[in-house]
Specification:
Elements: H1 5-79, H2 82-91, H3 101-104, E1 108-113, E2 117-122, E3 128-132, E4 142-145, E5 151-153, E6 155-160, E7 165-169, E8 190-195, E9 203-215, E10 221-226, E11 238-241, E12 246-253, E13 261-265, H4 266-281
Antiparallel strand pairs: 1-2, 1-4, 2-3, 3-7, 4-5, 6-7, 8-9, 8-11, 9-10, 10-13, 11-12, 12-13
Amino acid sequence: MAMKRHHKIMIGGFSTFLICILIANSLFIYFLYGKLQLDYRSLNLEIIELQTDTQSKLNELTSNILQTKEELNLLGSQIGSIDKEMDLLKASTSSDFSGIIEDAIKSVVTIRTDVGQGTGFLISEEGYIVTNAHVLSGGNSVQAINYEQKIISAELVGYDEDLDIALLKIRGSYSKLKLADSNDIQVGEKVIAIGNPLGLQFSVSEGIISGVHRQGPIGIEAYIQTDAALNPGNSGGPLINTKGKVIGINNFKISGTEGMGFALESNYIEDVVNNIASQVLNQTLI
């Protein structure tokens, strides 16, 4: 029996509908596949970038490790000559300090960050160190290199930006330096400045006190003027009198001049350190 016209139209419409669905599905699958391809390529690029970045960091880490090994080897080579260097240090100063240097340098450390370095000294047997705050400026990590050339991670306890003092803490038990009463300082007194530039050898320079209660950068008359040479790396190191006590922390020198170094007086060091310790540790240290 022949199909009626409306039956043909229905069948034709249904066939057209199926064809449209198939075409739509094909297009959807095509675009989905294309998107997956793009995502796959993008993921591959990210993986390649990550691999490149990881490799770069591994290379940098390897270089740092090799450099550290070289430094440690160099530091190790210095250990065997410490006694010889000690004799040279003693010879470079007067008899007033011959018995002081050997004890003092055991409490002096190099302070090293990832951007610079300076000097610090221990003010407690529990490993609390005083240095200049500007020595730490811009750094993300801090290390101390002690007299035995051991590299120790240091923790920042607190700092006073105005007086340029920072308090650090390292683990262990150590010899400490005692602070003198800076009100007793006399012009003409002999002093030594101890630094530890590059963390490889000690630097000791001798001089006299040229002035006391000098005005500093923020207008406070709290600085000792000395003609003891302040070498690169001396910032944060101790200025020591003939009794072996710290009378100041070496802070800055006048550029373009000789024999004009300045150290923050010890009484101010004590006040700042105890203020930081009271706020952070609920105790005083000096």
